[in-house]
Specification:
It is globular, with a radius of gyration of 18 Å. It is 36% helix and 25% strand. The protein has a seven-stranded mixed sheet with strand order 1-11-10-4-9-8-7, sandwiched between helices. The protein has a four-stranded antiparallel sheet with strand order 3-2-5-6, covered by helices on one side. It has a domain of 134 residues: 3-Layer(aba) Sandwich (Rossmann fold), CATH 3.40.50.300. Helix 3 packs parallel to helix 5, helix 4 crosses helix 5 and helix 6 runs parallel beside helix 7. It is of the alpha/beta class.
């Protein structure tokens, strides 16, 4: 059984992952994953490289179908509903992939506007106002006409975050948001994630192996193990650091002395 830290009785599960098995053909990546993400969490999916963290995220956001199990959003099954309902559920999710996912041929303003143009009937004037607002939220006010290649890595990640927020999602998913960033940019991105969670009331799910980020912003977590192909711990990262007896979890969380 995974080690579980105590949670508030008032926390309302927004996502329930129920006995999920992830596989590509005959190759099982992870099996029998069960955990909940509460509203307002910054939930960390952690583990060593190659354990299936990003694969789990892809299954949670609807890009890959699980071999077994289901994902529930506010009590509604994601994988048993019809295609139209599933599409509506996916629109409530904002995803920032590791690369940032920006179209290099489009300006930042055009990148952020794209989801609004595809999925809403808003007039162009309103879309422009929303684009300016989303870029301002991530500290990129006035950068609408810049192209991704004109920005630093940290600014590109923030621009990708602005696009992920374009449709006002209830839940934001980040896949290794700090990958390739220097320590200062990583800390600034962590601060921004917390600020957005607090100001927008969004729930955040983060795939990461960055220890500083895990301990700084994580309110809850799950630890995936490549050898046993399942989760071996769950709970707030700082509680796991102090209380989880599993040696792999301790080795992972004590790679450097915590601040």
């Amino acid at each position: 059984m995974p080690h579980s830290a105590s949670r508030s009785n008032h926390a309302v599960p927004q996502i329930v992952v129920d006995h999920l098995t992830l596989a590509y053909g005959e190759t099982v990546i992870q099996q029998d994953l069960s955990f909940t993400v509460s509203r307002g969490d910054i939930f960390i999916i952690m583990g060593e490289s190659g354990c299936g963290k990003s694969t789990l995220l892809r299954h949670m956001v609807g890009l890959d179908r699980p071999q077994q199990g289901d994902v529930f959003y506010e009590g509604k099954s994601f994988w048993t509903v019809d295609a139209a309902t599933q599409a509506r559920m996916m629109r409530r999710l904002g995803v920032l992939f590791q690369s940032g996912g920006l179209w290099s041929s489009l300006t930042l303003g055009e990148n952020v506007a794209l989801p609004l143009q595809l999925y809403t009937r808003l007039p162009e004037h309103d879309i422009c106002e929303l684009v300016a607002l989303k870029l301002a939220l991530v500290g990129l006010s006035g950068f609408e006409e810049y192209y991704p290649y004109e920005l630093s890595g940290g600014m590109q990640k923030r621009a990708g975050l602005a696009r992920a927020m374009a449709l006002d999602p209830d839940i934001l998913f980040f896949d290794e948001p700090s990958a390739g960033l220097d320590p200062m940019s990583s800390r600034l991105l962590d601060d921004l994630i917390v600020e957005l969670r607090d100001s927008l009331g969004a729930t955040v799910v983060v795939v990461t192996h960055e220890l500083e980020s895990i301990l700084a912003i994580g309110t809850n977590s799950v630890f995936l193990d490549a050898d046993t192909q399942t989760m071996i711990a769950s709970g707030p990262p700082r509680v796991l650091l102090q209380e989880c007896p599993h040696p792999k979890v301790q080795q992972f969380l004590r790679r450097r002395a915590p601040v």
